[in-house]
Q: What sequence folds into this?
């Protein structure tokens, strides 16, 4: 006993930690298996529409993978096929209260253009909080892999508060041609500096890159994952823990969905620069662009500083004018009754708050109808 | 091999089990040496010979040192060790830096030189193991320790895997006798070691690695776009990130060694709770500070050590303050350069020297 005694507390603590981890896994990951659902909250559903198995709405490279959309597009046997692309944040795939109707802007645009001309194929790439650096990277990916002719860009003030490229998009940086294209711009170079040398495999332990340890580590992780689900789900567990921390922070500081989200100057500038360079690149490639500021719920106090929000839209307009493209402000397009609520940002007790970003299926119908009209007027159907 | 990996945890577990199952210390040393080479090879196999060069060089130099009785011959041998080890360090760590600096200076006086296309990879831990072999040779020269005849034992001391990546920088007299004696297994050592390893992993994985992205994004922002609060927050975050990161490695090293029954000296002692710049360096990376003091500052200042002692023991002080000050400045500039091959590190070292000077003046005034 005296031999075991010193090691006993540690062994018990270790076993307790494993049990706790399994319990946490059962409570959190198993009940919310999709990362997208987790980010959208309980009242929203991620809806990536398909046409009889044909993928035209994709997420990133991990969830509803973009290469699937590209691959399906390439199965179309027509020499004159053209790709039209809509890119934006989770507003495009998030449906609030789907039981009231499951419809998405992406689906409406896809069907509308397909009916008019089977060569005009509308695709949508959307991921939560897609910032403009990410849009720039995806644009480069799309123009390289698809015969891209038109680009419809949805931008939101919220998304100027984040910069950087997330794990789900890093595969795009594996393409040498994309890397060389990115090098030509300031934003692209920044992206390459930060992420150009990182593949998804290296994210867990970037220090292992190019070492013999990498393959051993990979093998050990995969072995452990086969008989311990919580280990396999460690990425999700980490994400859930961070969400809980984020909710705790919001609880401490009294932050909810209607709290004012101030502009973060450096990130705002980095995003606007990426957008500017995206538009310049599109111009050079003769790809037509329509930019719109995403609808936002209007029956409550806006969660932005009004002056900053107005300035943002002025900046967007100025950028489109500079490049001779079209900008529309759709702030008030979707009426209040077609919005909903979202899980509280600062509690896990099940309470809800106003959702400023995701509307119901009928809201998608309104946005889709408006955009088809606008794009037709722009001559996109010709 | 890096510490915060599943591979290391499996590796450590296997080594600890085999180590204690082996019946003799000879076999245990054998295991330590080859497991250390394996540990190193998991990063890059091709750099094992570089490390072994330093090991072998000082092994033979020290054997000769012990036989040599004339001072000039002994000094020549120490000089040879310094050339060998510092030569390695210079080539792998500083050659690009110094060649770029030379090109920069040449262009200032109107001479345009083509940059040399050098692709030199810095071998992991080279700053640590070269310092260990240098200290071993100097200790033999100073007759603080005797040259070790058992090559495997000596090589195990230099390449001992827990300290190979990020220290502590061990002295021969701290470790070699532990490797030589047959150690007895105590579960209390195992438990203590495990606690330190897991505490280190907590500091590294939970704290340092989660602060790092915040710091990186902070440094990516132009300074003109940051408020005073942003800058202060960033400074504190970075301070904590490097402390958690570096001290985590020391915790894991100390804990891993203890699981094999070997005791390492502490390398961090709550440095941010220090009361003066001098106190800070007695608490931060203690093994480096004491190495720099004993093998760089004291010789530069002309202070000699009594046989068998260290700087704490017997200093012979008949040296002028100016000499000490000059030695201090040179020491700090080199200390900065040790941390990284860049002028910013030299400036960082000198910045610390200024603080130490300022504190000295302030302290003298207070005493007066």
A:
């Amino acid at each position: 006993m005296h031999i075991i005694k010193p090691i006993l507390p540690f062994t018990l603590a270790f076993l307790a930690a494993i049990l706790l981890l399994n319990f946490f896994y059962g409570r959190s990951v198993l009940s919310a298996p999709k990362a997208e659902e987790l980010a959208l909250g309980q009242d929203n559903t991620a809806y990536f529409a398909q046409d009889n198995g044909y993928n035209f709405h994709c997420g990133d490279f991990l969830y509803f993978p973009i290469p699937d959309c590209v691959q399906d597009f390439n199965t179309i046997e027509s020499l004159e096929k053209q790709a039209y692309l809509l890119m934006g944040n989770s507003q495009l795939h998030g449906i609030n209260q789907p039981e009231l109707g499951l419809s998405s802007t992406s689906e409406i645009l896809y069907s509308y253009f397909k009916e008019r001309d089977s060569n005009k194929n509308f695709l949508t790439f959307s991921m939560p909080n897609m910032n403009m650096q990410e849009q720039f990277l995806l644009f480069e990916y799309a123009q390289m892999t698809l015969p891209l002719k038109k680009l419809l860009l949805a931008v939101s003030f919220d998304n100027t508060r984040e910069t950087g490229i997330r794990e789900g998009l890093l595969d795009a940086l594996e393409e040498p041609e994309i890397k060389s294209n990115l090098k030509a711009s300031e934003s692209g170079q920044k992206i390459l500096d930060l992420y150009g040398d990182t593949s998804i495999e290296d994210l867990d332990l970037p220090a292992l890159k190019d070492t013999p340890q990498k393959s051993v580590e990979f093998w050990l992780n995969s072995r452990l994952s086969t008989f311990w689900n919580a280990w396999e789900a460690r990425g999700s567990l980490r994400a859930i823990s961070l969400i809980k921390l984020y909710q705790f922070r919001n609880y401490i500081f009294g932050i909810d969905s209607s709290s004012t989200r101030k502009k973060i100057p450096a990130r705002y500038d980095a995003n606007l620069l990426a957008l500017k360079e995206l538009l310049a690149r599109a111009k050079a490639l003769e790809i037509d662009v329509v930019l719109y500021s995403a609808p936002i719920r209007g029956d409550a106090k806006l969660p932005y500083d009004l002056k900053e929000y107005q300035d943002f839209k002025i900046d967007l307009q100025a950028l489109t004018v500079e490049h001779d493209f079209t900008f529309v402000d759709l702030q008030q397009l979707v009426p209040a009754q077609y919005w909903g609520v979202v899980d509280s940002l600062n509690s896990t007790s099940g309470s809800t708050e106003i959702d400023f970003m995701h509307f119901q299926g009928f809201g998608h119908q309104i946005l889709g109808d408006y955009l088809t009209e606008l794009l037709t007027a722009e001559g996109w159907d010709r | 091999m890096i510490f915060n990996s599943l591979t290391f945890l499996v590796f450590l577990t296997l080594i600890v089990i085999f180590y204690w199952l082996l019946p003799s210390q000879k076999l245990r040393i054998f295991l330590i040496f080859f497991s250390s080479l394996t540990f190193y090879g998991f990063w890059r196999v091709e750099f094992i010979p570089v490390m072994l060069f330093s090991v072998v060089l000082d092994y033979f130099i020290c054997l000769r040192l012990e036989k040599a009785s004339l001072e000039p011959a002994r000094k020549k041998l120490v000089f040879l060790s310094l050339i060998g080890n510092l030569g390695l360090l210079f080539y792998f760590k500083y050659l690009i830096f110094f060649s770029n600096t030379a090109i920069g200076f040449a262009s200032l006086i109107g001479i345009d030189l083509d940059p040399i296309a050098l692709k030199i990879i810095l071998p992991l831990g080279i700053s640590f193991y070269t310092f260990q072999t240098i200290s071993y040779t100097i200790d033999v020269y100073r007759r603080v320790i005797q040259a070790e005849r058992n090559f495997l034992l000596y090589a195990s001391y230099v390449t001992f895997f827990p300290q190979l990546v990020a220290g502590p920088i061990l002295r021969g007299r701290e470790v070699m006798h532990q490797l030589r004696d047959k150690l007895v297994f105590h579960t209390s050592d195992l438990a203590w070691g495990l606690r330190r390893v897991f505490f280190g992993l907590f500091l590294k994985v939970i704290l340092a690695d989660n602060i790092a992205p915040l710091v990186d994004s902070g440094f990516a922002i132009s300074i003109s776009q940051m408020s005073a609060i942003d800058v202060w927050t960033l400074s504190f975050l970075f301070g904590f990130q490097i402390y958690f990161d570096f001290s985590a490695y020391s915790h894991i090293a100390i804990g891993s060694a203890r699981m094999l029954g070997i005791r390492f000296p502490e390398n961090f002692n709550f440095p941010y709770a220090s009361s003066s710049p001098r106190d800070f360096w007695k608490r931060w990376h203690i093994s480096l500070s004491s190495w720099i003091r004993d093998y760089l500052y004291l010789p530069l200042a002309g202070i000699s050590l009594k046989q068998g002692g260290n700087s704490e023991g017997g200093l012979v002080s008949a040296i002028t303050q100016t000499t000490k000050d000059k030695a201090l400045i040179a020491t700090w500039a080199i200390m900065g350069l040790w941390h990284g091959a860049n002028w910013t590190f030299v400036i960082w070292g000198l910045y610390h020297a200024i603080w130490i000077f300022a504190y000295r003046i302030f302290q003298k005034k207070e005493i007066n």
Notes: Residues 269 and 340 of chain A are 31 Å apart (CA to CA). Chain A touches chain B through 25 residues (CB under 8 Å). Residues 8-29 of chain A form the longest helix (22 residues).
